[in-house]
Amino acid sequence: MLPFLAQLVFGENRRSSSDRKIIKPKRLAKGDTVAVIAPSSGVAPEAFEKAVQNLSDLGFKTKTGKSARARTGFLAGTDRQRLDDLHQAFGDAEIKAVWCVRGGYGVSRFLPDLDFNLIKKNPKIFIGYSDITALHTAIHQNTGLVTFHGPVAASTYSDYVKNHVVNVLMNPSAPYKIELSPANIAKESNLFKTQTITPGKCRGELIGGNLSLLTALAGTPFALRNMKGKLLFIEDVGEQPYRIDRMLTQLRQTIDLRQLAGIALGIFEDCNPKDATASQSLIEVLKDRLGDLGIPVIYGLSFGHIRDQFTLPIGIEAELDTEKATMTFLETGVV
Question: Which residues pair with 4 in a beta bridge?
């Protein structure tokens, strides 16, 4: 009974990464049509218009999901409406990319009903972050499609964000080095300062996303699996250090983190303790939970719930250098 239970918890009864082929979507070009969908929470009408304008400013035509403007409490419509918009976007030959308008909450509710065959037969760019982590993980691990952890349509598109979106999705090159955002470096908050937890250089297949979502998937058929030699990236926002500790502890107990090539941590905005006298700092928690793994680990790269964030292609080979605080994509995420 115990071995079977372990297989269910760790996802070892599902196809291994060596059994599936990586699928890269086609690159975007100006004039292409992109879908704007809301698979999690909705946004206010003015924020939705901003999202559409952002993508138009990048040179794309937009096609809005039928229910993308719907609201059902804290969700953007019912589970069926949100799932149908996702399936419709992948099945529409005119659409070249699927852009999530925001994260929030709700994706995990319909993961069991995802049509992975439809997605695999119609590979295209899929981009977003935060709650969208659940879709990235489920889609990539079940189809091999490279998806993109990057700005949602309603994000603020600073020059740093635009530059990396264009370079990764439209004008790809390899190797492609990502350095820290100058605006992030200039921030006074200690949460924007890089901290090397374990020095070193490593390379591996990129996987990861929002810590809260990665731990919420643990114990489900969509949990992270086959992590040996991979480069895990993690970010979160608005969590107290004890909660970060709890989630990292759960991750340690569901995944053998020592088998990873390394860990890249983004900027954990608004994660300072409310009472510093009764709490470890965020960095102390990260050092405690990740500093004994014997692999390179660095905090403070320019991704997460922040304005200046770069786009990470999930599934490609990348190199992490803690001394230089850089990540280098060793292959393109699109063809």
Answer: none
**What would the DSSP string read from start to end of 47-111?**
HHHHHHHHHHHTT-EEEE-TTTT--BTTBSS-HHHHHHHHHHHHH-TTEEEEEES--SS-GGGGG
The reply to whether 235 belongs to the active site is: yes
Catalytic residue among 205, 305, 317, 319: 305
Catalytic residue among 17, 41, 108, 130: 130
Q: Which of 136, 169, 202 is the last residue of a domain?
A: 169
Q: Domain of 196: which CATH number?
A: 3.50.30.60
Same domain as 211, residue 165: no
Does the active-site annotation cover 279?
no
CB-CB neighbours of 206 under 10 Å: 25
For residues 197 and 135, membership in a common domain is answered with no
**Distances in whole angstroms, Cα of residue 256 to Cα of each of 11, 230, 260:** 13, 11, 8
Residues 163 and 187 in one domain: no
Tell me: do 323 and 245 sit in the same domain. Answer: yes
- The answer to whether residue 334 sits within a structural domain is no
H or E element: which one contains 3?
helix 2-10
Write down which residue in 139, 169, 199 finishes a domain. Answer: 169
**pLDDT tens for the 335 residues of the chain, in order:** 333 333 333 333 333 334 449 999 999 999 999 999 999 999 999 999 999 999 999 999 999 999 999 999 999 999 999 999 999 999 999 999 999 999 999 999 999 999 999 999 999 999 999 999 999 999 999 999 999 999 999 999 999 999 999 999 999 999 999 999 999 999 999 999 999 999 999 999 999 999 999 999 999 999 999 999 999 999 999 999 999 999 999 999 999 999 999 999 999 999 999 988 899 999 999 999 999 999 999 999 999 999 999 999 999 999 999 999 999 999 999 99
Entry pTM? 0.93
Domain containing 247 equals: 176-329
Do 20 and 64 sit in the same domain of this protein? yes
For residue 130, indicate whether it is catalytic. Answer: yes
